[in-house]
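Two quick folds needed for the group meeting slides. Do the first one here.
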Amino acid sequence: MSGFSYRTGALYAEDVALTDIAAQVGTPTYVYSAAVLERNYRAYEQVFGGQNVGIHFALKANGNLAIVALLGSFGAGADIVSLGELRRALAAGIPPDRIVFSGVGKTNEELAAAVKAGIAQINVESEPELEALDGIARAAGRRQRIVLRINPDVDARTHEKISTGKRGDKFGIPYADAQALYRRAASLPGVEPVGLALHIGSQLIDLAPYKAAYRKVADLVQDLRRDGLTVQALDLGGGIGITYNDEKPPSLDEYATIVCDTVGNLGCRLAIEPGRSVVASAGVLLSRVIYCKNGAANDILIMDAGMNDLMRPSMYGAYHPIYPVQEPSPDAKMTAVDVVGPVCETGDTFARARLLPPLGTNDLVAFGAAGAYCSSMSSTYNARPLAAEVLVHGHSYDVVRARQSIEAMFADEHMPDWVTGTDPIAMTAGRKRA
């Protein structure tokens, strides 16, 4: 857990004690290490050094403005999948010419905003999207650069809910249809097809699916060129796995070798879209024990963080390491406990029979590898406010998202007069709605 370590008996993020953050900011709180973010991003720069490869951080992994801006300051672009993420990327200072727009269901509003912003590339995923974008771009007097996202029908060998490149998945254009649709795109005045894209899934541990998918797209590039069509760019997606428990992901050097061996001789400008592998290990979720109760099978630790804060265990059965913030003694007795949240769902369970040292009420724990797909997937279920977020930089830290207030959760809601005759926001302020 580089960037997070025990010192003088307590867990630190860089040079800041998590106990200090908990005392000042409260819990649950996401804590991120700027040093780990930079280290993970620079690792991609290093393995692709000297090559024509654009690195576009996938905002869906973590869209906090401070994190996106920090990565942008290192040179990262942005991979976005919605209008909200487009505006986030721009607000964080990512130049439009470093933004690529993925996603299977872009609305006309989203396409128009992307065209207006002048982003580098839109990854088109269907014929209807191609036709819609052509009309939108022509109406705006623009010619939008696009690539066609291909579904190569390759099994990524990852969790079924995050596999995106198999036949039957909703993503991409069927491989057999790609050449005809590329030819069609080249005939349209509102779009400029410059290449191909693919993304076969997330949390890949095995490189074989990448090799198979990249070879298929390389063959398609050659077929398109033989057809007299121009192919200048390849977007290779993201998805390199990380270690949550006992996974052994490939090194970035091994991944870069696969890229070089399969598509490196095509003369294309390459783009990659890492997310999890950049930000997951840079974050923890800091939480406090509310109660420890006796259970029929195991003792149960009830945390103040819930599935609304950290959805992955409930949604995917995902494993997150759990670290006591107070360093356990070397001879501490490890006991199997269930770690759960306070949400009114049995699925609000982080771990079953997890071996942990003794923990009791008010003790702090950190859920590890929580920088990706954790805060970004959080909700206000059970009317629980969104957790705070903190970015640590050396000896200092900043609250980069304040804890949501309860009032803010319903500030945009309105009670019609015909229901009760009152507006709850007005009641809070001591006024009756006119």
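Then this one, please, same format:
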Amino acid sequence: MQRRFMHLAFVAFLLAGLSGCVQETVNGTTKIYTYELWVPLVVLIAGLVATPAGWFLRQSSSRFAWALLISGPIAALGFAPSLFLDRAAVTPEAFTVRTGIWGMTAVHEVKFSDLRQVRYISEETVGRRGRKNTNYYFMCERKDGTSAKIPVGNNVVEAAAPAFIAKVLELNIALADQT
């Protein structure tokens, strides 16, 4: 019976993974991008399961048990709500992005009527132990001389990027790929 349950759980997890993780909703001329419901639910359930699992494993594998005890509540209370709230919207008037860890959420809004130019840029940073990371951004330069740097660093913004670029091209705003 337990073996059959494990097979069914594996098949359910595999099907959820194959279904994609970003949902696009079209409401008239507005396109809204969010994570599929299963993504934050899996993180929430994994966080809720990790804590008691760590408690029971602390005698046999203390390092792994402490990792589960610490990461479980962080996943359940920090990352799962963040995934519920991540959102990108492309409307006829603006491109809006809400992303980040719950409590430290970054909100970016760029109105198309204010844009002079959009540049797609990449920046290379050196991470821990000398590992190189490449981060991508939309550098939105406004007509008044200010700019907004929108990170293209999660699946929601990556899914919204083609709609944003299409809208920029539709409105004849200068677009440069500098990656």
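Slide caption for protein two: The chain has one domain: 2-36+86-178.
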